[in-house]
From TrEMBL:
GO molecular function: phosphoacetylglucosamine mutase activity
Domain Phosphoacetylglucosamine mutase AMG1: residue ranges: 2-40
Organism: Nymphaea colorata (pocket water lily)
GO terms, biological process: UDP-N-acetylglucosamine biosynthetic process
InterPro entries according to UniProt: AMG1_III
Name of the protein this chain belongs to: Phosphoacetylglucosamine mutase AMG1 domain-containing protein
Superkingdom field: Eukaryota
Length: 58
């Protein structure tokens, strides 16, 4: 089923990135894999980002 496939993908992702070490390289590789899977370019991914004004009070 689709839910089973999604669960297996999430499990595989968790084994790629070591959260304890903060390994940025494996994180970058993970982003590349996801972009390839979705058939997105970095430009397309970047277009999703919308910069919002800061609400910090000093």
């Amino acid at each position: 089923s689709e839910e089973q496939k999604a669960s297996e993908r999430l499990w595989a992702i968790s084994s790629l990135v070591n959260q304890a070490t903060g390994d940025a390289f494996s994180g970058l590789l993970l982003v590349e894999v996801i972009l390839q899977y979705k058939r997105w370019s970095v430009k397309r991914w970047n277009e999703l980002y919308e910069d919002l004004p800061s609400r910090q009070v000093k």
